[in-house]
Amino acid sequence: MSPQVSPPPPLLERFDSVIRALGERVYACREESCALAALRDTLLPSLISGELRVKDTGRVVEII
């Protein structure tokens, strides 16, 4: 069996802190992406059909 190298605890704590922050950012971006996709799916059909105009979308977004 080969020897195992372990980093010092402060380095492990720093690594954990950085990785945790990145994971939280990924989660937040995923949530934002889902919200934007839902907004797109709600507005796009109305925009394409002409039922809604771009200048009117602000009011719709406030409602949603």
Which bin fits the share of residues in helices? over 70%
The helix count comes to 2
Q: Give the distance, in angstroms, between the N- and C-terminal Cα atoms.
A: 61 Å
- The oligomeric status of these chains comes to single chain
Number of E-type strands: 0
Shape: rod-shaped
In round numbers, the mean pLDDT is 88
Hey, roughly how much beta strand do the residues contain?
under 5%
Structural class: mainly alpha
Order of helices and strands: HH
The domain count comes to 1
Q: Which spans of ≥5 residues are poorly predicted at pLDDT below 50?
A: none
Radius of gyration: 23 Å
**Main pleated sheet:** none
Strands, helices and their partners?
Layout: H1 9-49, H2 57-63
Description:
The chain is mainly alpha-helical. The chain has 2 helices and no strands.
Keywords:
about 60 residues, mainly alpha, about 75% helix
Give a brief description.
This protein is an all-alpha fold. It contains two helices and no strands. The longest helix has 41 residues, at 9-49.
